[in-house]
Design goal:
The structure is a homodimer. The first copy, chain A, is an alpha/beta fold. Chain A is built from 11 helices and 18 strands. The first copy, chain A, folds into 2 domains: about 5-175, Carbamate kinase, CATH 3.40.1160.10; about 255-400, VC0802-like. In chain A, strands 3-6-2-1-9-11-12-10 form an 8-stranded mixed β-sheet, sandwiched between helices.
Chain lengths: ~400, ~400
Amino acid sequence: MTVVQKYGGTSVGSIERLQAVAARIAHRAAQGRPMAVVVSAMGKTTDELVALAGAVSARPPRREMDMLLATGEIVSSALLAMAVRELGHGAVALTGAQAGVFTDDTFGRARIRGIDTERIQREFAAGNVVIIAGFQGASGEADFTTLGRGGSDTSAVALGAALHAQQVEIYTDVEGIYTTDPRIEPDARRLADIAAEEMLEAAAQGAGVMHPRAVELGLLYDIPIVVASSFAADGAAGTVIRKEVLMEPEDRVRTIALDRDVASLTLRQVPDRPGIAAQLFGPLADAGISVDTIVQNAGEDRLTDLTFTVSHADLEQAREVAAPLARELGAAELLHDHDLVKVSLIGTGMQSAPGYAALMFRTLSDADINIELITTSEIRITVLLRSEQGEQAVQLLHRAFALDQPVST
Amino acid sequence: MTVVQKYGGTSVGSIERLQAVAARIAHRAAQGRPMAVVVSAMGKTTDELVALAGAVSARPPRREMDMLLATGEIVSSALLAMAVRELGHGAVALTGAQAGVFTDDTFGRARIRGIDTERIQREFAAGNVVIIAGFQGASGEADFTTLGRGGSDTSAVALGAALHAQQVEIYTDVEGIYTTDPRIEPDARRLADIAAEEMLEAAAQGAGVMHPRAVELGLLYDIPIVVASSFAADGAAGTVIRKEVLMEPEDRVRTIALDRDVASLTLRQVPDRPGIAAQLFGPLADAGISVDTIVQNAGEDRLTDLTFTVSHADLEQAREVAAPLARELGAAELLHDHDLVKVSLIGTGMQSAPGYAALMFRTLSDADINIELITTSEIRITVLLRSEQGEQAVQLLHRAFALDQPVST
């Protein structure tokens, strides 16, 4: 079975760290299985390249931007291959294009169309570990493309699928997925495994370890993803993201996510009639604004309040787009609030156990924490709170749902 | 007629300089002729990448080294294309591979097999200036290759040939080819033109402006090369390197070159018989040591002294290779000397005018400068001198041959 690993930018953030990663790779490769390793750009390289482009152009052309950014991963893959060979094991570095990663031509956020593994297989046959520049592919024109956010994770999972790997190992600077962010709650525990659907919700709700896109791809191709630390001892456990988690009871809270990048807009007292949402959210989408939570509260006299959340970066533009629409729709006023956080309980089967929502609301109410807004999905309950109460809420909920306790099996 | 330009690393050594180059390009492109621009890596980028590789591996694999180094020119070409577009003119950046530069697979010093200009022509048709990463190409395996020393100049001249350009413009940090190095002789004058053969000799004898390889390619394809400063006003003259220089008298000294990177080895009193040279220089070539001047002086009693010069970097290894051979050949001793310089007078038709050699030797002798060794070619007289007398010799010869005087026509 082919081994597929991915190392993030922090894991190769210096020559010393890159050499430590090379040692892990050489050690694993010595076990004799074919091995493909996806690597991100070293440390802050990508940010530095973005800054260079920004110094030259206010709006850099996307094609050349991708060409520029792709060099970061080419450098780290070439150096990592050198470091592995220095340890006596055969290794070659491949760009995304050389590794057969073909994408569409939407520069900056290309989607993988397919992977031709011919070259990789040939290098395996020659006894080489294949080090692949992550985050990138080639368009039909043989131009560099980049995959956008979460790109290297996506490269790794896609390669895992194409190479029929048993699992994809994602090495990063944390030891796995936790019951909540350990920087907020010191009693947070690492989860041995988590369902992909849960991970998707957690990622969407602000848990930054894995990009949802890579998790989705793992789900689609049914490949388990192991998230572990590149700094921990070799073979340390990490967290397995699987299609289904069978070994543990499903009806419990798995993790609590805190998303600080939340701003809300509210159209107050809109006359309630069909098509309001389309009239509002069409133009927002056209402006490239990603709308997160949407809540519409039916009010008195067929007047309704419509609230939605966006990232802080999109707030100003969202207000510009929404203001004339609010007038057209007859809203009494357009309010906005950027001093908010989202706290989400995530766990499979929560909806079928209504006691969870009740315990969540009671815990917050007992601590005089006011809930601004509530949304739920099948495996998630999210509340919008004032920013300054976010961390306290996470800590209280972590205890209330006994996430600091080992799981009884 | 297509315009082909090349800008060196110093010319794009900072964002400000790169923007100044972009302004020159946009100004020229506005005249409406198709335009291809070859660019080197910014400033010290290549040295930094070499240092990174050196930190990872004592002997970095050549294939990955080329992959690593190629990123330097990809970065500068992407940024330069962005900067040109920022000025309102269409521009795309292409890697060597995308520009159709195909090479053999001798990594580190690949030779160009051919250039498929289809993509470049397509970008011309779309109204784009094409910015091409210099110094690089693609092997048959679609691996990055680099062209070795003088690589970007070679890229530019090869593209000039493939695109049927009228001339190739090489922009660098000097204003052209001079009668000698202006840092040594303040009265040195810029030459309006120089014959390619003269330029080849000058480059081989230490005049660092152009690599001989690019000059040879220009000669082979009969494309004039204009060397000019990227810092001078747009349209400043520079020096034209042509196949033949017809407009000036041919029988005069054109330029004086000083080469400081000279060490000599001498096999003293070798019994003179056929095959000595082969026995000595075969193993040196096999060891990758580039031998420059070779002089064999027939001595008394069928014993001969054999002297050759190498670069300082190669001296130690040359001694190691030569020592056992000297014993085999029966030499009395193996001497070496690294405290030498070469001073060369270069000019077409010098051999047919023996007065030049006489004037050279008299000038040096009048100043008590001892000549260690003399070699000549059809268009060159070279003397080996003690290091400390090199600059004085250049200054005296510059005056003796009236190179500080405007040419009378």
